[in-house]
From TrEMBL, chains A, B:
Name of a matching Pfam family: TetR_N
DNA-binding region, residues: 49-68
Source organism phylogeny: Bacteria, Bacillati, Actinomycetota, Actinomycetes, Kitasatosporales
InterPro entries named in the record: DNA-bd_HTH_TetR-type_CS, Homeodomain-like_sf, HTH-type_TetR-like_transc_reg, HTH_TetR, MftR_C
GO molecular function, one term: DNA-binding transcription factor activity
Occurrences of domain HTH tetR-type (ranges): 26-86
Keywords: DNA-binding, Transcription, Transcription regulation
Compositionally biased region (Pro residues): 7-17
Disordered: region residues: 1-24
Keyword Transcription: yes
Organism: Streptomyces nymphaeiformis
Name this protein carries in UniProt: AcrR family transcriptional regulator
Amino acid sequence: MTVPVSAPVPAPVPAPVPGLRERKKQRTRDALIRVALELFTRHGYEATTVDEIVDAVEVSQRTFFRYFSSKEEAVFAVQQMTEERFVHALGQRPPDEAPIDAMRNAVLSAWDTIGEAIEEVIPVDLHLRTYRMIESTPALLAVHLRRSTEMEETIARIIAAREGLDVDEDPRPRIAVAAFSGVMRVTGQMWGRGTDGSLEAIRALTEQYLDQLGPALAPRWRD
Amino acid sequence: MTVPVSAPVPAPVPAPVPGLRERKKQRTRDALIRVALELFTRHGYEATTVDEIVDAVEVSQRTFFRYFSSKEEAVFAVQQMTEERFVHALGQRPPDEAPIDAMRNAVLSAWDTIGEAIEEVIPVDLHLRTYRMIESTPALLAVHLRRSTEMEETIARIIAAREGLDVDEDPRPRIAVAAFSGVMRVTGQMWGRGTDGSLEAIRALTEQYLDQLGPALAPRWRD
DNA sequence: TTGTCAATTGTCAGTCGCTGTCATTAGCCT
DNA sequence: AGGCTAATGACAGCGACTGACAATTGACAA
């Protein structure tokens, strides 16, 4: 067994200049996302055909499906970024926090930094309209929920690791995450139905609803 | 204001003999469901085309889409029945039960009577295989989750009514239901992955996992 | 029984999402 | 400059789904 004393840096700056080819790809991808979301939110998701998107971006339909495995996937490209934010934030939480608190604080801190990250690809305004579209379009809502449960498994494993547990032995990580995610979903729903579409509003709702989780499970509601 | 003393029965037997036309429709519909689920579970959902189903039942493709608005909907026809069972069972719970307990007992009592109800349309065995297929087929899982959240809204309103609350004023009904449903979903997942595919097994898991909801939300897991 | 009405079904043509294939283009690297 | 390879475009085809119209078949009254 060798003890790594001073490991050599594997790659100082792996991508200093991404190269023309890579930059071109990134631009095409971003353009597809922007145009797609713009058309989706303007005319509706199903009313917009893939042909309309690729005509506007001036690429072939085949290219669209090389970037996104489906029309739906284009909708969730930005969503994916915010999910990664949350997972990262959760990993940063101090290990002595209770599981529920760690998740709660991770969402709240994620909400704080998400705005700027989104702005690099699309206007935040467009992203908010996209979120509402997802909530109100059955086909998209379905995919959204499936993606959420996929992330729940990821989160459950992080929580289990924090507590030194095995997810397949102790059901509590998955259950805590499921309960937490359920509340977050209701939060998103209520925010989408409300009139205040700001990031501050959803942050406030997040806190408010998570605070109600304990009381909601209490045996007696009337007092 | 009139006090209903002894309400007259509105319609004694509205449908004594459904008529040939109606019976024929029911038979076609049941046949489509049976054959579809059989083929789906045997060869896989996406691998089975609608044409294969309608060829086996000897109807036109157009007829299939008159009975089911999509290929997916055929999968959930039986599921729908069990959901109605649960809603009914929930309505029967005594009003003094705590919300969470009412839901818990409603599922458990529903599991008891679901078997026979299913058998009228398809073999229970086929239904169990269908459930597993849904869990393991992304496209179906997505639809399943969306249907679940639609039912959550229904349940939340029942809970709110029991407690004399307005779902749009007090968030607790929706939150309690979301947490509850999250746990039920994990239950279904775990059951689908396990080896014991019996109705007893899922009943046992239901009890076990719901018992863990409180502990999972506790601030300290280690003791 | 028969004729009429309306519900149900079949046929056909067409749209749209999506995929496999193959030729063409265009960065990249020696 | 020229070869290599990644990216794109063009095309054909499949399967889910829909609209429109014609054909069939129970229902029900004359």
